């Protein structure tokens, strides 16, 4: 019997899944392939086939299997209920959500942990993200093209994230203490729960990128529906709806604290600026059309004179 003291996990990895054992297998390969090995993993099966999930876990090598646990919800309860269940079932001081259809570079966790150990004042760190567009084939998925996500940004800022989410869960390693201070993910939201949480995190303080190398891979399957579809692509309507609801609630909170005066002024001011810009464009187009017509008539007269 070994007398070695078990190593406490440094990072807790939460994987949400439902009826996608092939993608789950790829996700677990991504996790177990990390250069840093001080991790724990909880799979939250949100109403899918429990036996299929257990079979994927059983296929892992013994040294990895001991660090992976599966929780089974008898019925689907939603992605953010599942995320919170995974957070509460783990204990490591750092957290990351690894969606079952995404993947990592083998150095992702080691780079993130090294950064956070060197910067204890930071609440988390974000990797650059590479989008992998893939096509489903009989033997799995084939990557058809790759592109960087938000390559123009120098840092994941609150100002930019107010417009829309600038990083997805696969790229964000953060300290567990954030949930103690900010609460868990808002599980009343069917989508955009990560954006709502990211806004709270960024309102506390700045975040950095792990340099320019993309260590997080966000897989997208355009045109694929059903269990293998992407929530961002398949649920565009829900994303737009709950984006609007979050903004509306924040606006109400601002009005409660500050009144409507400034907002009423800015709403009219901004609308008038758009009207002014549109009017200017229309006038420029009209002048251009007149100039083109005059030029055409001059050319026509010259041709006639030469005849």
Folded structure, characterized:
The structure is a single chain. The protein has helices at 21-32, 50-58, 62-65, 79-88, 108-118, 158-161, 177-182, 193-204, 231-234, 236-258, 261-306; strands spanning 11-17, 39-46, 68-73, 94-97, 103-104, 124-137, 140-149, 172-175, 209-220. It is α/β, with parallel strands linked by helices and 307 residues long. The protein has one domain (11-235): Spore Coat Polysaccharide Biosynthesis Protein SpsA, Chain A (Alpha-Beta Complex), CATH 3.90.550.10. Strands 1, 2, 3, 4, 5, 6, 7, 8 and 9 form a nine-stranded mixed β-sheet that branches. Helix 1 (21-32) runs parallel beside helix 2. The N and C termini lie far apart (107 Å).
Total discrete domains = 1
Estimate the mean pLDDT confidence. 90
Number of helices: 11
Provide the CATH topology: Spore Coat Polysaccharide Biosynthesis Protein SpsA, Chain A
Give the C-level CATH assignment.
Alpha Beta
Helices and strands in order:
Blueprint: E1 11-17, H1 21-32, E2 39-46, H2 50-58, H3 62-65, E3 68-73, H4 79-88, E4 94-97, E5 103-104, H5 108-118, E6 124-137, E7 140-149, H6 158-161, E8 172-175, H7 177-182, H8 193-204, E9 209-220, H9 231-234, H10 236-258, H11 261-306
Parallel strand pairs: 1-2, 1-4, 2-3, 6-9
Antiparallel strand pairs: 4-8, 5-9, 6-7, 6-8
Helix pairs in contact: 1-2
